[in-house]
């Protein structure tokens, strides 16, 4: 009889501990969502083509990013973590999106580029490269962001790259 009481007490204690641990685990997992705040934004990459349902992404302090692929009714945004190595950004846990072949991107700031960049970017243009740079800058961009393939080569698709719209990344890393 005493053994049964000890066994029942042990089982009740075990169940209570398991219940408390399950509840704590649930609370902890709910708080794991990565939150971003506009005041912490350090980089914004907008689409080269504008319109409804566009893709853009932003980097925030503490290596957090927000990726949005939606429309004016639902931005389709989610968050994750990124790493930065030089001018290469890796968006960890990036979901699959049309026109985005990878989670790795190369930042090309116009201020760091010379004539060979515009000759590469606009191979069929015979306009002076300074004019091409000025034209790119007039639309409010300070650079381009290109997806990289598995061999770290730029995937140049004239419709699926990003324009830098806000950049204080160098100041924050």
Concise overview:
The protein has 173 residues and is α+β, with helices and mostly antiparallel strands.
Structure write-up:
The chain has 173 residues and is α+β, with helices and mostly antiparallel strands. The chain folds into 2 domains: 1-32; 38-172. Helix content is 29%, strand content 28%. It is built from 4 helices and 8 strands; from the N terminus they run αββββββααββα. The chain has helices at 2-30, 115-121, 129-138, 169-172, and strands at residues 41-47, 55-60, 64-69, 77-85, 88-91, 104-109, 143-147, 162-167. An 8-stranded antiparallel barrel has the order 1-2-3-4-5-6-7-8. A hairpin with a 7-residue loop joins strand 3 (64-69) and strand 4. Mean pLDDT is 81; it is low at 18-31.
Main sheet specs: 8 strands, antiparallel, barrel
Report strand %: 25-35%
Secondary structure tally, helices = 4
What ranges have pLDDT less than 50 throughout 5 or more consecutive residues? 18-31
Number of domains: 2
| Fraction in helix | 25-40%
From the helix content, strand content and strand pairing, which structural class follows? alpha+beta
Order of helices and strands: HEEEEEEHHEEH
Shape category? elongated
**Order of strands across the biggest sheet?**
1-2-3-4-5-6-7-8
Oligomer: single chain
Radius of gyration: 24 Å
Taking the alpha carbons of the first and last residues, their distance comes to: 68 Å
Q: Let me know the average pLDDT.
A: 81
| Count of extended strands | 8
